[in-house]
Amino acid sequence: MAAEKTEEFTKLGKAKIEILSTKRKISAKFTELGSILYDAIKEGNTEEAIKSSKVEELLKNVKTLEAELDSKEEKLEDLKKKPDSEEKIDIEDAEE
Fold this sequence. Notes:
mainly alpha; about 0% strand; disordered C terminus
């Protein structure tokens, strides 16, 4: 019984760590995006910056990370609802 509870808490902990990691990656992408846009505004190149491939890439990355975050949060909720299940959390690194 104690081993099962330990395993349950381990799964929950791993899921929470994955969520936090993904949130940090999203935050880093927004920081990079903000820096690019700040520099563009300062230089008066806002339209060029918005259409740049770097900005498009960052936006695409954020969208992908947000989808991963949603999935990981759903998995965490499933684990909370079914604490005794054998469901495994798919732990994957988001591409940067």
